[in-house]
Design goal:
137 residues, alpha+beta, three-stranded mixed beta sheet, three-stranded antiparallel beta sheet, 4 helices, elongated
Length: 137
């Protein structure tokens, strides 16, 4: 990051629970996120492949509170889905991109610990989260 053309003044890395928490901030942090988070997804993918291969760790990349704002947005998006699951016993999200699918998965698993909550892939490679009862075979 120091040799890049981006004006980044803060890089912090903390490791706990087998996850490398990486925080990046600076005047050009928004440029690292990119339009619709595409650069964020690319950086996250590159960091994961490098860090997981060398150290066996997973990562959580936070660039200028991007994840925090995405989590707040997903909380609001999931409210009607949670109501639907409470009424019908099952439900699913719309197709979500990048980190959003992971955030939705974490939040729905926390909300429904006794249900099957998983990421599924649609025909065109888009990912969504399903909530269902466990098979009782």
């Amino acid at each position: 990051m120091k040799t890049s053309c981006f004006d980044i003044d803060t890089i912090e890395v903390d490791v706990f629970n087998n996850i490398a928490h990486i925080f990046v901030d600076g005047d050009d942090a928004a440029l690292l996120i990119g339009k619709e988070g595409y650069r964020y997804n690319a950086l996250s993918y590159m960091f994961f492949n490098w860090i997981n291969a060398h150290y066996g760790l997973y990562i959580k990349l936070e660039i200028a509170e991007f994840i925090q704002s995405q989590e707040e947005m997903i909380v609001n998006y999931l409210k009607p889905i949670i109501e639907h699951v409470n009424e019908n016993g099952r439900g699913k999200t719309k197709p979500l991109d990048g980190i959003l699918v992971q955030i939705a998965l974490e939040q729905l698993r926390a909300r429904f610990p006794n249900k099957y909550v998983a990421i599924k892939t649609a025909k065109h490679g888009k990912k969504f989260v399903v909530v269902n009862e466990f098979n009782s075979k």
